[in-house]
Specification:
There is one protein chain. It contains 20 helices and 10 strands. With 544 residues, the chain is α/β, with parallel strands linked by helices. It has an 8-stranded mixed sheet with strand order 5-6-4-7-3-8-9-10, sandwiched between helices. β9, α15 and β10 form a beta-alpha-beta unit. The longest helix is centred in the C-terminal third of the chain and has 58 residues. It is globular and about 80 Å long.
Length: 544
């Protein structure tokens, strides 16, 4: 059940005004968010049991952000009202046949007197209160302000705000010192933390990537081209916007409120093959889609790309919440370029789902053989002992071709489609957990990177033979990785790709690198060991 999918319009204008007044009262620091502490005091006036209130919070804060915005607050109040009327508080309650538009606000004991008292106070102190206007999130200017390092913990009102603060105070200094942004991933900006969850579609040309997005949106989007030839020749980000328009890559990469500034490292050749399609759509308010050019087969086509295709897909993979690899029954071969692309997704295996699209073009017996052939092809590329989850179906707006598949095929496709759609629906709910997961992953990678860089610096001589030593270190980089791993007891699977590291390292003077700074490493260790667990504890369900 996705709270944000319930429009505010299910609540009458008159009730909205009442809820707005209540929201402003409960939101003690007027930042537009009701945290667990605010909620426990406010919800206590409903006289519901602790168990019911625990359920109300869990359903209203379905994205697990640790706070309620105005939309979620209305949902919570509607749930409280239904609970007071004797309904059991369940996930499906707001989706049931209850007429929400005529539902009265709940009974909150003593609330009217408290609001009247607050109004009298405001009058006497002659402060003008603008009801529904909240100040911007306190974290909005941390990234640009010089005082960012000294942001107190009390100004953190959500998990994402807490991560921003920890990044600026503890992780970013380590990344800058050891040039993590040059070797692994660009530094994070405010927009990277606030970005909506992303889903990337990868596959060879004409496997139905663009059609899949159109199918989910139930209509086209600006700049969508579909055809049997390789039509999508660029990376297209499909996201929510006030009107339908296409924005060129160079423009989108320099917009501070967009999470794509890191793509400038791939140069103009890439940015001219990148665009953003904006349109108003309820689904796009929660998920952003990334449509990619068809992966080509054969060595000739690869050399004609003017930018680092695998590098770009790897950059997007780190930002995405789900990666869909699309195949169709007539294109099961995994080409050289596709193999490189799949290899670049290393470390993101948990995000990958495989979709066998256009499966209604063949009969049941052929489908069985095609499925076996697909698993055989994938087994040679994805080196994991576990079996990948494969969804079989025909993801387009046409009805299933029953003449080929028969009634069994139709039923199977419908079940598979439901499974995939429920996977997509879960993305916004898991977005906050995914963000923490990616943050911890990044912190570990930055720590290992610092160990490697400082170790290489330590191996350099003080005076003579620097160039020779540098060349020797680069040539024997794998052995040096082994030394670092043994010295600091690190897991070998967490180390970066040797060839890629060599390539980047050859452009630097190792002698100019920094020595190991134990205080910085300790700060990141403390962050992983204490700060992040504390943050999660502060913003969990207040009734746990």
């Amino acid at each position: 059940m996705e709270i944000a999918s319930i429009p505010i319009t299910t609540c009458s204008k008159e009730h909205q005004q009442i809820y707005q007044e209540w929201f402003n009262y409960a939101d003690a620091d007027t930042d537009g968010r009701i945290t667990g502490n605010d909620a426990t005091k406010f919800f206590a006036m409903s006289n519901l049991s602790r168990q019911d209130l625990k359920q109300v919070w869990a359903i209203a804060d379905s994205k697990r952000q640790g706070y309620l915005g105005f939309k979620e607050f209305i949902a919570a109040m509607q749930l409280v009202s239904l609970a007071q009327a004797g309904h059991a508080v369940t996930n499906d309650l707001l989706n049931s046949d209850v007429d929400l538009s005529s539902l009265k606000p709940p009974v909150m004991e003593g609330l009217d007197a408290l609001i009247a008292k607050k109004k009298r106070k405001e009058k006497t102190s002659e402060l003008e209160s603008n009801g529904s206007l909240h100040g911007p999130s306190p974290s909005a200017n941390w990234f640009s302000s010089k005082s960012a390092k000294n942001v107190p913990l009390s100004s953190v009102t959500s998990i994402v705000d807490g991560l921003k603060r920890l990044y600026l105070q503890k992780l970013k200094p380590l990344e800058v010192t050891y040039r993590f942004n040059d070797f692994v991933s660009p530094l994070l900006a405010n927009s990277d933390f606030d970005a909506k969850p992303m889903v990337m579609l990868l596959g060879q040309y004409s496997t139905g990537k663009t059609t899949f997005i159109k199918h989910l949106l139930k209509g086209g989007y600006p700049g969508a081209h579909i055809g049997p030839e390789p039509t999508t020749d660029r990376f297209v980000v499909v996201m929510s916007g006030p009107d339908e328009r296409s924005i060129p890559g160079n423009t989108i990469a320099v917009q501070a409120d967009m999470p794509f500034s890191g793509l400038t490292t791939f140069g103009t050749a890439f940015l001219s093959k990148f665009e953003c399609s904006q349109m108003p759509h309820p689904l796009l308010e929660h998920i952003t889609f990334v449509d990619t050019p068809g992966v080509l087969s054969g060595e000739k086509q690869r050399t004609q790309r003017a930018y680092d295709f695998t590098g770009v897909t790897s950059w997007f993979a780190a930002k995405c919440d789900l990666i869909l690899l699309l195949f169709d029954p007539h294109k099961l071969d995994v080409s050289d370029e596709f193999k490189r692309v799949i290899a670049s997704l290393r470390g993101h295996d948990d995000k990958i789902r495989v979709v066998l699209n256009k499966a209604d073009q063949i009969d049941t017996q052929q489908l069985m053989r095609v499925y076996g052939a697909l698993m055989w092809s994938l087994g040679k590329v994805i080196n994991t002992p576990e079996v990948m989850r494969v969804y079989i179906g025909s993801f387009n707006d046409k009805p299933v071709n029953e003449s080929a598949t028969g009634p069994i095929g139709k039923e199977l496709f419908e079940k598979e489609q439901e499974d995939l759609l429920s996977d997509l629906k879960d993305i916004p709910k898991k977005a906050c957990d995914r963000r923490i997961n990616e943050f911890v992953k990044r912190a570990r990678a930055a720590k290992i990177h610092a160990y490697i860089i400082s170790h290489l610096k330590k191996e350099m001589p003080a005076m003579i033979g620097k160039a020779k030593t540098q060349q020797r270190l680069i040539d024997n980089l794998l052995d040096e990785f082994g030394k670092v791993q043994r010295e600091f007891h690190l897991p070998p699977g967490d180390f970066p790709n040797v060839e890629h590291f060599k390539e980047t390292l050859s452009g630097y003077n190792i002698d100019k690198f920094e020595k190991l700074k134990p205080k910085m490493i300790q700060a990141v260790d403390d962050m992983l060991g204490y700060d992040i667990p504390d943050l999660l504890k502060n913003f969990r369900n207040p009734y746990d």
